[in-house]
UniProtKB/TrEMBL annotation:
Residues annotated as domain DUF1731: 253-299
Signal sequence region: none
Protein name, entry field: TIGR01777 family protein
InterPro entries linked to this entry: DUF1731, Epimerase_deHydtase, NAD(P)-bd_dom_sf, SDR39U1
Family: Belongs to the NAD(P)-dependent epimerase/dehydratase family. SDR39U1 subfamily.
Species assigned in the record: Halomonas nitroreducens
Amino acid sequence: MRVLITGGSGFVGQALCRRLEEAGHRLLVVSRDPDGVRDRLPAGTDIRRSVLDFVDTPPDALVNLAGESIAARRWSDAQKERLIDSRVNVTRDLAMLCEQLTATQGRAPAVMVSASAMGFYGDQGERVVTEETPPHDEFAHRLCKRWEEVAGEVTTFGTRLSILRLGLVLDAGGGTLQKMLPPFKLGLGGRFGHGRQYMPWVHRQDLVSMILFLIERDDLDGPFNGSAPNPVTNAEFTRTLARHLHRPAVLPVPALVLESAFGEMSRLLLTGADMRPRRLEEVGFVFRFPTLDEALADILG
């Protein structure tokens, strides 16, 4: 099977590409710098600069992981536009590819698995959040809503669409832990604000398995919460991480400090959602790392 991946050279994309290559699939990856990312991807990966460059190599499946990090910098109006554009523009190109392949080949790719994020729900306090929970209207929600709406355009051409609303992705070498580990290893870690905000998380290997599961199950479409079944609060996360590192976690960061440093973006750290993967569990997906203890034991060894 030919699988086209946007964001294939990123933290999740690299692990997905390795798993797909091991399973014998042909990899098509979109990158603005093909030569610069070639060493990160399996040998033989077909890397091109644009989604639409693959019109002559029709993929069977699409995986949409592209998008600038939402926590890269403060949310100025210009940065908000960049965050939206980095997701919407590539996603719209995938819909255009489906349209062109329908016109020239008579069929679009069978399936697209498209990333979204837990930010779709906005701040949910302590209530349990499933795929049916109404969102709280704020920037993170509006960003994800727009992203998902544009992804929905592929269904016009008969492509089955599954959307994964991702929690914090954990593994060695990148993601959330890459930023958290240095201070925690020095014994300088602690909760953010009051620490009661939930942090949905997922081990990167379970996330890759989710993507493959949704590609292969042709009866599954719509939104799925892409997180482990046992989310934790920020205070629980920091205590657990510190315990695995054999370090204290006694230096909380006051909310006012985060709000002063990051402005509106501080909501990513000070709010959350008790997000549960209800639909994935209902259809039989099995987590290899269902608890944070199991995930950190694997990652930190």
